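We modelled the chain as a single entity of 487 amino acids. Its sequence is:
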Amino acid sequence: MHPIPFALATSEIVGAAVVAALVALFVLAGLRMFRKRGAAPVDAPVSQGEIERELEREAGVAPAAPQPLPPAAQRPSIPVPAPRPEPVPAPPVQAPAPAAPSPAQVRQEAEAAAEAAALEARKKEEYRQKKEAERLEKEQRRLEREEAARATREEEARKAREAEEARLREEEEKRRRAEAEAGRTLAAGLEKTRGGFMARLQGIFGGGRQVDESTLAEMEEILFTADIGVKTATKLLESAREKVKKRELDDPAKLKAALRQEIARIVSLGTPAGASRELAIGAARPWVVMVVGVNGSGKTTTVGKLAAKLGQAGHRVLLGAGDTFRAAAGEQLEVWAERVGAPVVRGKDGADPASVCFEAVKRGVEEKSDVVLLDTAGRLHTKAPLMEELKKVKRVIDKAFPGAPHDVLLVLDATNGQNAIAQARQFHEALGVTGIALTKLDGTAKGGVVIGISDELGIPVRYVGIGEKVADLRPFDPAEFVDALFE
């Protein structure tokens, strides 16, 4: 049997060449990876026959039985691609060593580095200064806010303190006004009088003794030394003796009640209980009040206190400083005028009192004042020419305003006792006194003079002075006087 010659078609040769090329590429890639990683050595190259057998197995073709090869002379020559030589990696190219810089370059580089460092330092310093400025500004604003808050707190505290001080001052002023308005009680003002003749009378009324002639004799002695006047004392004794004879007074308590009742009748002057004794300001405008009295009786002070009272009652008051003979009388009245807020007409020292009073009344008419209070010269009642001077003042006042003065108020010092009754009689005969202000009643035990004045002259006591305050010039209340006397 002749062997079958091995012959390959052209397409098979081409495919085989392609396969061989692919295998070579894979081998080359593996070598490169091995070189890079320092991996294990590459396996020996695969032979052509193994490659063909692997391809046939993948294609599902049974491998052909190996045929005996013809002798070399008879076999056709088949070109077999020569294996590619394995590429040899090129040795790494080393960079040439840099040349040593010159001194100029070193200096320039150093200067550049120094300049860059300086620039960086300046930037850092500017940034630091900026942040510091921002911090200082914030701190300044914080301090300003704290200062403003502190100033606000201090202002509020100051206002609160001033408000509290104003409140305290107002309360103190109210308290002073209340004290001034309240003044002393009449009972307190008559304390010395109660400790005088009234204390001795109380000794008679107490003890439960029988009322007889000896009791009346003892009471007579006390009354005649009580500055109520002989006439008034006699009248009180006769009234008591008559009731004793009628056996209406058989014990001291009844005697005391009878004496109290008789004194109340005398000082009331027939006016209803509770009726006001103050100056009654009539319809005439101005209502002119001529105030008279001897030196030292408290006349000018009484004028000032009356001005204060009338001003508090809502009247427009004008003062006339007619006491031009007494030193400092005009200044004293000006002080009162300033205190009560009333205008004052004053002449020169030693000027004619009548002319000053005339000018005061005329001004009161022009200014439509409600009340004109005229202080006059305080001369002793025993000097007839001086009493005539007061009569002249009264006539001049009538010329300035017909019908004036509408009231003549006599100021008496209660410490003068029975002498005050004599003064009242003389002034009443010369001027027609319409009312009495009895001053300094708190400083004497001679308060019984009120009873004698009321009984002998029938002139109403309008005011009693029991202290230095304005309110201590109190309207006279007969019932209150009797109660305070027998308290």
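As a brief sanity check on the tokenised model: The longest strand covers residues 407-413. Strands lie at 287-292, 317-321, 344-346, 371-375, 407-413, 435-439, 461-465, 473-475.
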